[in-house]
Design brief:
This protein is mainly α. It folds into two domains: 75-352, Peroxidase, domain 1 (Orthogonal Bundle); 372-418. Helix content is 40%, strand content 1%. It is built from 15 helices and two strands. The chain has helices at residues 51-54, 81-98, 101-112, 135-138, 147-159, 165-179, 214-225, 229-236, 246-249, 281-288, 298-305, 307-318, 320-336, 375-387, 400-419, and strands at 243-244, 269-270. The protein has a two-stranded antiparallel ribbon with strand order 1-2. Helix 11 (298-305) crosses helix 12 (307-318). The longest helix is centred in the last third of the chain and has 20 residues, at 400-419. The chain is globular. It comes from Morus notabilis. The chain crosses the membrane at residues 400-419. Its cofactor is heme b.
């Protein structure tokens, strides 16, 4: 998400028809041309339009003056649960074929990130409402190149007309995170679409990558959305995906040892070595800053320079589990910003309830009376526990531990009896 050309950290491109590439998740990109025509040839916000889409003859494969395939857009209708599930499977296949995880994440973020908590009315408040499909918003400087993400998703939208654009954008974003190895996100669906370009938010609501005061800028933008410092840092961690191209964004190198061979179209500079894998590498690499082939934007560096941000950045660099937990919550919160749900409680498409985390084994828990077990005894019990199939994080299927204690007690009693 970004607002200015100078801070346009990640205008991404999708590849030619033969090879699709992962485009960056960056919060920023350059301003597009002011061409009024929204044909594929004249669209200034699309640095490279795939030949795959230039040659399509389907009537829904272009962006009209009213919006991307506006004719097929549902009007204020909830998404269909079964179609959402099927669309998710198609998105998974799309990700396997095109490595487009970063640009799909960015698409979902940018549709939701226009939210203003100080405005109550929908859709004036912005947020996840599908408005990014319209020309006027696609041509915002922060959204350069996102037309390519729309082109990738349009066949899925055509196939599942019962899924709103607002839901499709967030479904694609969440699925991309999970398929890249990230956490399972607690998502809900049923978002209502805006109906026309006049309902798009004004330009300037998305963050830049290189403002004069990065910390103040991030807080100004994300606080307006209702997010806090912890959520700012957690969401920044999604830069573990993607890369930046200087000829399109003004940031990064033309090529590094990590991007010269793709996957997809080669080139650009990534934040991490494995830039299609979602993990906590971003925080580790930003903290160390030892690799000159990895990108560090001003809004990245400030996470370790600002005292409040640094608390969370340090934690995530050390603890990937903590990062995944906080990121999942922050991403889900972001995806709901400003949305109007039908039904109001939303739609959950995940099968079955989440299973509770297994109880961790703590030997001291099995102490009796007032006497605490010694460390040596705890280690011995733990060794016995693991020897018969248990582990510190996995409870036994049956009460083997009780059986062991009974056997030990019987042996102790017999020893005492025969000793006397």
């Amino acid at each position: 998400m970004a607002t200015s050309a100078a801070a346009a950290a990640s205008s991404r491109l999708l590849p030619s028809a033969a090879r699709a590439t992962a485009t960056t998740l960056s919060l920023s990109s350059r301003s597009s041309s002011s061409s009024r025509s929204f044909s594929l040839k004249g669209l200034g916000s699309s640095p490279l339009v795939s030949g795959l889409f230039l040659n399509q003859k389907r009537s829904l494969a272009y962006v009209s003056s009213r919006g991307f395939s506006a004719a097929s857009a549902p009007k204020c209708a909830a998404s269909d649960t079964e179609q959402l599930k099927s669309a998710r499977e198609d998105i998974k296949q799309l990700l396997k074929n095109t490595f487009c995880h970063p640009i799909l994440v960015r698409l979902g973020w940018h549709d939701a990130g226009t939210y203003n908590k100080n405005i109550e009315e929908w859709p004036q408040r912005g947020g996840a409402n599908g408005s990014l499909r319209f020309e006027i918003e696609l041509k915002h400087g922060a959204n350069a190149g996102l037309v390519n993400a729309l082109k990738l998703l349009q066949p899925i939208k055509d196939k599942y007309s019962g899924v709103t654009y607002a839901d499709l954008f967030q479904l694609a974003s969440a699925t991309a995170i999970e398929e890249a190895g990230g956490p399972k996100l607690p998502m809900k669906y049923g978002r209502v679409d805006v109906s026309g370009p006049e309902q798009c938010p004004e330009e300037g609501r998305l963050p830049s990558a290189g403002p004069p005061s990065p910390a103040d800028h991030l807080r100004e933008v994300f606080y307006r959305m209702g997010l806090n410092d912890e959520e700012i840092v957690a969401l920044s961690g999604a830069h573990t995906l993607g890369r930046s191209r200087p000829d399109r964004s003004g940031w990064g190198k033309p090529e590094t040892k990590y991007t010269k061979d793709g996957p997809g179209a080669p080139g650009g500079e990534s934040w991490t070595v494995q830039w299609l894998k979602f993990d906590n590498s971003y925080f580790k690499d930003i903290k160390e800053r030892k690799d000159e082939d990895l990108l560090v934007l001003p809004t990245d560096a400030v996470l370790f320079d600002d005292p409040s941000f640094r608390v969370y950045a340090e934690k995530y660099a050390e603890d990937q589990e903590a990062f995944f937990k906080d990121y999942a919550e922050a991403h889900a919160k972001l995806s709901n910003l400003g949305a109007k749900f039908d039904p109001p409680e939303g739609i959950v498409i995940d099968d079955g309830a989440a299973k509770p985390a297994p109880e961790k084994f703590v030997a001291a828990k099995y102490s009796s009376g007032k006497r605490e077990l010694s460390d040596g005894m705890k280690q011995k019990i733990r060794a016995e526990y693991e020897a018969i199939g248990g582990s510190p994080d996995k409870p036994l299927q049956s009460n083997y531990f009780l059986n062991i204690m009974i056997v030990i007690a019987v042996l102790a009693f017999l020893t005492w009896l025969f000793g006397n």
